[in-house]
Amino acid sequence: xxxxxxxxxxxxxxxxxxTIELPxxxxxxxxxxxxxxxxxxxxxxxxxxxxxDIDANHLLRIGESKGSVLLEFESSGKTYNVFRSLLxxxxxxxxxxxxxxxxxxxxxxxxxxxxxxxxxIIGINExxxxxxxxxxxxxxxxxxxxxxxxxxxxxxEKRVEILRRAFGIEEYSTAKKNAEKFSSWIRxxxxxxxxxxxxxxxxxxxxxxxxxxxxxxxxxxxxxxxTIVTLDDHIQLILKQMLxxxxxxxxxxxxxxxxxxxxSTIDKNxxxxxxxxxxLVRINRELADISQSEKxxxxxxxxYQEYIQKRKDLVDVTEQATQxxxxxxxxxxxxxxxxSDREMLNSNIKRLDSELSELSLEREICNKEIENLNHxxxxxxxxxNNITDSGNFEMELEDVSDNLSNIKSEMISxxxxxxxxxxxxxxxxxxxxxxxxxYCKQKLDQQHILELENKFLQRKDFLENKLGQMEKELQENxxxxxxxxxxxxxxxxxKSELQKIQVQIAKLNVVQKNIKQLDLKIDEKxxxxxxxxxxxxxNYFLEKVKKLDEIADKLSTxxxxxxxxxxxxxxxxxxxxxxLESTYLEHSNLIKSKQRNIEEKRVKEKSLVELxxxxxxxxxxxxxMKAVYQDSQEVEIKLKKLESEKLSFxxxxxxxxxxxxxxxxxxxxxxxxxxxxxxxxxxxxxxxxKIVFTDQIGTWLNQHFIPxxxxxxxxxxxxxxxxxxxLFQKWFYLLIEVGDIDVEIDEYxxxxxxxxxxxxxxxxxxxxxxxxxxLAYRLALNxxxxxxIMLDDNLLILDxxxxxxxxxxxIQIKLVLEELxxxxxxIVSHEKELEGFVETxxxxxxxxxxxxxxxxx
Length: 857
Fold this sequence. Notes:
Layout: E1 2-11, E2 14-21, E3 25-31, H1 37-49, H2 56-59, E4 66-75, E5 78-89, E6 92-95, E7 98-102, E8 105-109, H3 111-122, H4 135-140, H5 145-153, H6 156-167, H7 170-253, H8 257-369, H9 373-383, H10 391-429, H11 446-494, H12 497-537, H13 542-577, H14 580-592, H15 594-628, H16 633-735, E9 741-745, E10 751-755, E11 758-760, H17 767-789, E12 795-799, H18 807-819, E13 824-829, E14 840-847, E15 850-855
Parallel strand pairs: 3-13, 3-14, 12-13
Antiparallel strand pairs: 1-2, 1-4, 4-5, 5-6, 5-7, 7-8, 9-10, 10-11, 14-15
Helix pairs in contact: 5-6, 7-16, 8-10, 8-12, 8-13, 8-14, 8-15, 9-12, 10-11, 16-17
């Protein structure tokens, strides 16, 4: 990691924003004690890892409500910008959410997430803890002066514990503790095993008890089955007797057919009465619905009448609105025709000018040509009087040329018209909606734009088709012209000198005639040009413009109809969307059936009264018939007795069957309980087997795994201490030149000093010697941790590394700096003598409780 820039705002003694750009190499922040040098290091650590174990009250500048640090650093060839800030609310200071720029992209993170991200970027692999900074960073890159003093002055156990965590050896201790916890859990499980064995014996006793009750239940079930068969036989015998008795009763019932007939008639009437009552209920329900419909129709009538009126009004204005649209289309077409006629006249005038120029030039050429006519005629008489005249072909060629010129001129006019209409359409399309159309002066809407666009496309298609036809005509005339030219060339190439003379004479004769024709054409075209110019200057378009004004006046007059049509169309459509008409008509039709329902109700009520009268009369007659009939009493008594006996046996049969079902249920439950308890016994036996295996694991942990961890940790610690001792001695001997002082590290990583064979206490050494021991210890610790975690050695930060050094000893620090392999070494010191050992110097001064940093020249 290389630090490139830091921006500090309202952190401790730094007010506002202080920006420091750091190069690679050895950098010195020099200033008096209390000037704010160490604050820069705290700001770097805060930007990377957050507050950690730093008190926010000691970091935010007194009197300020917000402070921040922005750090730019490089790692693995990539540049990152990390930002953290502090915010004071009331009496509490909070660490806000930070952000990180990666590849130019800003990403926000929570406090913990940002710390984890930074550790991952700079290659430090350690567990993230919110309330602490990075242990590896503290020991491998930047160890504060007070922290190193705590390491050296701590008791042996505390020092070893700190260094084990720094070296990453505490993982063995953690594994040992976890193994001991697991072993303790295994002992708990072993105690549970006794409970499981007790439960196992209880379940086995329960299953024996259930099996003891199952066999008697089976015997009772068999007995109940036999009893049920006997009862069923008794019931069948009684049913047989009842059948014979009923046959006797049927013979008696034949005598009472009249009674049955009466009863049947009464039942039919009762059923008819019930149906009539149901019909009355239905009619009353329909009348209630009609009443509700009358209310709905009363509520809808104003809206429906408005809808009918609006629809009628819409029909009344539809014709005027259609006329408005037709007039608007006529207006647009007339405007287009006027513009088209003007452009055509201008184009024809230009064409006539061009043709007049050509004709004048041709006449001059003809005059020059006929100057030798007499001389050529004399030569012709001498040579031959039979020369074929080719002047007719030249005339046809001239006509074809004129046709080509006319076609090209007309094609140019059509292309201009297409371009002009495209420009006008583009002008309209670039206007925003609700703007005024520059051609029809109406407000633009989507429909109007589409109409203009469709009109342009139709006109464009027509003109493009016409262009296609003219291109075909152009090609045909060009082909004719080429044919005439080729023919003339062939004739001229084959003729003799005589023929050439004859052709010349013939041409000159034709030219002489052509001069007259040219004069006629010049006069004709001059007259045509004047006529066209007069049309442009006079009131040629007055009639069309007048007609255009009349159309505009009519449009203005009929605009209100168009607006009414649009408004009425919207209102009618809105009503149609709500199904107003269908709802109104549906309920109106229902109301029309009200009178029919009332009449039907009156008829049903009258029919109900008649039925009641008839039922009363029939019932009276039936009672009279029953009083006559008494012979069936004896049969009825016997039937009742048989039915009573049958009911008694059936009840007994039901009780036996219920008892049988209960016993079967108990028997099935016993079987299920036996199955469930057997499953629990199997599960318990499996758990007991697993606990036995767990006991074996606990024995292995206590007797082999934990002792092995202790031995491995001890060997690793010894290996680390030996390497650390070598590094400590290396740095110390670079700092101290005295040859009779030896140093080493004991088993607790305590510095041991020997001079001339005698042991010396560290406290008895001079201040410079103490600082040398502390600096050597710090450098050895930094290098040792970098090796263990394989961290790059690009950055090293030294806080007051020469505190207490004499001027002679300060010279030795140069050897140390030269020995360091870090690409960037940041030193904070109040010693000016160190300036000669570094490439970059920053002066830190404090004035009026404000720290400032300046780059020394």
